[in-house]
Structure formats: C-alpha cells, structure tokens
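Reopening this ticket.

The earlier resolution said the output was attached, but the attachment link was broken on my side. Pasting everything inline this time so it's all in one place.
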Amino acid sequence: MQIGFYVTGSKGSRYADLIDQVDLAERSGLGSVWLRERHFHRDHGGRNFFSSPFVAAAYMAARTRRIRIGIGARILPLDHPIHIAEGAAVLDRISGGRLDLGIARIGENELYQHAFGTSEIQARGRFEESLEVLLRAWTGEPFSYEGKHHRLPRVSVRPTPQQRPHPPLYLVGLSQETLRFGAARGMPLLLAGASPVGALRETQNGYRALLADSGHDPHTVAMPVNRFVYVAETEARAVEETRTTVMEFIERRGSVIRDFLSMNGAEQTYERLFEEVFIIGDPGSCTQRIRALAEQVDLRHLILTFNYFTIPHDRCRSSMERFVEHVMPALDVEASVT
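Inline output:
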C-alpha cells in the first residue's frame, strides 16, 4: 500500500502550518503530498494552497527531497495548455522528477468557467484538446495545432519534463463520458474522499470494465482512494471531537462534499458518515477500518485528508502524528524512493 495525503487547510491554520505538515510527511515516510485546484473558495485566506497549486508545489519541492508531489487536479479548460505544459515541466525538473499530475475537465461550480471566460458546454472540448496539446508539447519536438478551441503556430516547448515521456497523469471525474475517455487511454483514476464504500466499489469495478474493453490490463492501472481520517487517543475522544465538527465540515456554506455522498439529506448523519466515509477512532480501530476497506475496494494507493476546516489545526496535526506513529507501521506500506 502506498500512502499520501492532501495538504488542505484547517481551522486557524496558516500557510506555515501546512508547510510544516509537508515537512512532517517527508520525515515520516509518507509517499506523496497532493494539492487541489480551487477558486473563489471561502476557506482560502492563508488556510490552503488551492488557488495556485503549481506555485505551492514548487516551494514544497525546494523543501523536500523524497516525497512525490501530486496535483489533484489542474482544471485544464481554465488555462492555456502551453502554460500548463511549461509549468508542469519546470515543476518536474526542479523536483527531480517527483511530479504526479492530475487533470480535471470542470470546476466545482459554473462560476469557475464563467470567471475564466469559458463555459460548461465548452469544457469537454477544451479539456480533450488541452490534453492533446500537453502530450505533444512534452515531446519537445516542433508541432502546430489546429483545433476548435486552441490554434498554435509551429512551436517547440522547453524545457521538457524530467520524467519521460511525461509525469504520470491522473484523471479526476466521475461522469461516464469522462470515465470512458480516461479508460480508452489507460489513465489512473483519482477517487473522491466523500464516496461511500458501495459507490467507491461500483466506480472501481465499472472503470476496470471500461479499461478491459479498451484493451488495458485493469490490474496495472492505479485508482488512488482519498479518505478523511481523524486519529485520537481513544475511540470516545475521537467521536467527541468530531461529532459536531464533521457535520459542520460537510454542511458548511460552499462545500460540495455533499454532492459526492450518494445519500439524501436524511441519510447524511454522523453515524452513517462514520461507517461509510470517514475513518475516525483510536489508532487500533483506524488500523482495522483501513484493513477492512482494503478487503472491499482496491486500496493499493490511499491518499488521506487529515485536516478539516472546522477542527483546530493543533488537533489535526496531532491526529496526523498519531497516524504516522501508530497506524502506518501496522499497515503494509510501500516505501517511496525517488
């Protein structure tokens, strides 16, 4: 099992606190750190790096030597593909070939598209054209491009990525059209943390079938699973510290987590989330729950979210430390060496 974590904000955290968590992850042997791209987010303000993940990733690359740095994900239609190709290549070079690049078709809501001068209707075409431009740009060979949304004269993009032919690409998306697009290309699939176990298993099984139909070996294609985790000294303390705050986290204004839960409002109780979505408890129970999850879904790559915008940062940091000290050694964790 490979284990990484999403570096997201927590209540009262500062940028320095989040960088400190990346340093802890590097020292503790976690395999990867991941950043999302979000815009116009109420929980910005020094508490996450959502709005400029490439910039934050470059700083993290300079502070670390081993841990892989994932972007989960750049929303391709919001930027020119040459900008993304160049930024990713530079980031891969300065990190010594440690970049994992997730790509997405669309933002959390229509404001993303409108603010950046595009539309949801254009998103799929722009996404597919952008990926084609990225792949051609990373070869370093001269090329021109004539598409509906992008037209390029003959150019040669430098530098090229250190990883050849390019950094590993991960797909973010759940629509059937997006899944078919990814499966046709054998792309790894990043799975959202708010998916209940049944929905997660169904998505993995469906994607495996699409991969097989496209001539790819499903067992060689990664499907990293994101899970929210909170580790306390005791089970009772874990429940006490999260019962109210988890519901506030789910229900806070602007949150889109509810959209991925596959539950109606009445079903979105703490007890249901505790059983199906969140990994909450003492070190022993968290270990058992991860092992149980691994028996139900493909959990070869687990990406954890330790931080909650509704829980003070010191508690989130302590939860992460308990995971590293007590839970991770009890799991069959694959070492990451770069």
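Reporter confirms the inline version is readable. The longest strand covers residues 68-75. The chain has one domain: 2-330.
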